[in-house]
């Protein structure tokens, strides 16, 4: 025999000609009343680290604390279970929505975080490690200071040749 606890039934036999039944459900649902994020702004860079947003749903005894995460521009940043990954340069809004476990949206509660994604930081190339010919990768810039504070900047796709004191490059 399997027993299920769905509430209680009260039977009033005080009048046998009019027996009264009443039912009280023990399956009460506590709806979500709010959601708060631990961050409201995140700055990331292409190729950099991810960041995590933590959502706190209230009340603590809410029946269903499921949180759905969305990005209003997934070409800038994506989000899965609060983990934000930079994708492209720009700004987007990450939204966490507590749905009370239903498709009904009138009782949903949401909170948002702005995510700014910057270009990847420049690639640093140590001049002292280059021997022979070296092709600067796309998107990289080689910057250094030579003797007498002469500055050197070489853009992507240039080929440089280093030998004792001579630096030659072709655009």
The value of Rg in angstroms is 31 Å
Please give the number of β-strands: 16
Q: Tell me about the biggest sheet?
A: 4 strands, mixed
**Alpha-beta classification:** mainly beta
User: Mean of residue pLDDT?
Assistant: 79
Provide the fold topology.
Blueprint: E1 7-12, E2 20-25, E3 34-37, E4 41-45, E5 51-52, E6 55-58, E7 67-71, E8 77-80, E9 83-86, E10 90-98, E11 109-118, E12 132-135, E13 142-145, E14 151-154, E15 159-163, E16 166-170
Parallel strand pairs: 4-11
Antiparallel strand pairs: 1-2, 3-6, 5-9, 7-10, 8-9, 10-11, 12-15, 13-14, 15-16
Structural features, described:
It is a single chain. The protein is mostly beta strands and 171 residues long. The protein is built from no helices and 16 strands. It has strands at 7-12, 20-25, 34-37, 41-45, 51-52, 55-58, 67-71, 77-80, 83-86, 90-98, 109-118, 132-135, 142-145, 151-154, 159-163, 166-170. A 4-stranded mixed beta sheet has the order 4-11-10-7, with no helix packed on it. Strands 5-9-8 form a 3-stranded antiparallel beta sheet, with no helix packed on it. It is rod-shaped and about 105 Å long. It starts with 6 loop residues before the first strand and ends with a strand. Residues 162-171 have low confidence and may be disordered.
